[in-house]
Model the fold of this input.
Amino acid sequence: MNISKLVRKNVLSLQPYSSARDEYKDATSNMIFLDANENPFENGSNRYPDPQQTDVKIRLSELNNIPIENILLGNGSDEVLDLIFRVFCEPNEDNIITLPPTYGMYSVLANINAVENRKVLLNDNFQLNVDEILEQVDANSKLIFLCTPNNPTGNSFTQESIEILLTKFNGIVVIDEAYIDFSENESWLKVLHKYPNLIVIQTLSKAFGMAGIRLGISYASKEIISVLNKIKPPYNVNNLTQAKALVRLNKMEEVNNEINQLKSERKRLYQQIEKISFVEKVYPSDANFILIKVDDATKRYNQLIDLGLVIRNRTNQPLCDNCLRISVGILEENSRLIRALKIIK
Ligand SMILES: *Cc1c(COP(=O)(O)O)cnc(C)c1O
Done:
């Protein structure tokens, strides 16, 4: 597979902006930096951040056993996803494939970048319609977006169906693993080396509890990472974010403890919500939220708002008639939700 054939021509021939910090990296303590027009009075943030976020990448590399050449970081997954569009998709010419009901950003980014979005619905079990997906592919199909565990349905796609797409699709398969830490399934990072056309996206926004710092991570072959690096804004991940991320990534015991609590609360919520009379279905979840089907989603949503509980009404999403999505909170929050569900008539 030749990745450069998939890349937009203007990106292929692009000379990346070379920042002052890119040019001279091997700082020693007695060097004086008069190259970037920074304010020289030290206050902790007067210098530009490391454009390659090397310390954070080294830590991610240790945790996941992936070389740092296979990692690119962004200002949230949202930025990483946007970079992927802009590297591979020629506006008004190329197309992507998304699999609703799924994360809304893929479609938003397709619209912003003037890229056709070919939607292939999931089947009734919220699994991939592999044959239909492959039928939609043509010479201009550059990307397929798979979100597993999927938002808002909560389930994971089968390994076999994903493998078929990875081997049969002559474009890039983006697997969004925002919720992987809540799943018993293995991450696709384990087989990253086998698929030159695979991009795995992760984030510190969910299981790592760092939505406020905005750090998104993409893992892919060296070829893909180096072309994404060509168009990345040089200082896209700020100093404060890099520092906070590093602290958090060195507290894996705390992170894992929170994940385990959320998984046990997810189980309790599932069992309690199942008993509510107006709940027609509770879908199994590999994520930190639960999708439920009720008699009248908008009525139940408004009743909960009146009781001070905000959940997400997904009734207008395809295949999600009368569905509500509920994030797993801490014990007290979930107990309040359960009490509210028992009260409303
Ligand atoms: C929450 C979420 C993300 C995270 O996006 P960030 O920009 O990293 O906060 C990514 N993908 C999916 C499917 C999500 O639900």
